[in-house]
């Protein structure tokens, strides 16, 4: 069942039908500067975004200081060699991004096994217990993971990791049929958002039409080097897969 907490509902309903911009930059990105994510977030606010998604306590804190009125979906990407789980993999990262100011905590909630040897979705219950004030955003890769995340208490589900698991690594476009089924089946239990592989306003609008509460867009707006790579990949007759750069560990 969707949350009945008045504060959480107010935050979630403020994003209904709108665009959330993922403002992320890694230190090895060609666009990296210390204030780049702040400029991204300020540009997103100017453009009418209803929320921000950001990575790492440092960047979350900077953005919240500059754009405090927009809800923050926080995550922390941490890579380990023995797992493909990298989005907020442990409660340590959860605590850090919560303290940095994120109202919404994004977690890998797939069936993948974490560095700690547990299914990623197990972390949801621990977060709900330790930080009940937090809104949990479940990043999943398929319908069944979305169902399991909701059963474990997730407030939001999105197919963010469709394309980032071994089973889906070959894909380049979103699975709109799967997403439509998620919207239809889970709309009374959680907030279903679209994130992943949305590159045009028209595609974002399709998601709203299918039932998305809101849409998260990142690379197509805030990472011009990857936008360039998508073009040159096609112009080069697909000899160099741009998604390898998008999926790279940092």
TrEMBL record:
EC code: 5.1.3.9
Signal peptide (from-to): none
Gene3D superfamilies in the cross-refs: Aldolase class I
GO terms for biological process, alphabetical: carbohydrate metabolic process; N-acetylmannosamine catabolic process; N-acetylneuraminate catabolic process
Keyword field: Carbohydrate metabolism, Isomerase
Keyword Isomerase annotated: yes
Enzyme class, UniProt record, top EC level: isomerase
Pathway listed: Amino-sugar metabolism; N-acetylneuraminate degradation; D-fructose 6-phosphate from N-acetylneuraminate: step 3/5
One GO cellular component term noted in the UniProt record for this chain: cytosol
Enzymatic reactions: an N-acyl-D-glucosamine 6-phosphate = an N-acyl-D-mannosamine 6-phosphate
MF terms (GO), sorted A to Z: N-acylglucosamine-6-phosphate 2-epimerase activity
Pfam families assigned to the protein according to its UniProt record, in alphabetical order: NanE (PF04131)
InterPro entries recorded: Aldolase_TIM, NanE, RibuloseP-bd_barrel
Main function: Converts N-acetylmannosamine-6-phosphate (ManNAc-6-P) to N-acetylglucosamine-6-phosphate (GlcNAc-6-P).
Family statement drawn from the similarity comment of this UniProt entry: Belongs to the NanE family.
Protein name in UniProt: Putative N-acetylmannosamine-6-phosphate 2-epimerase
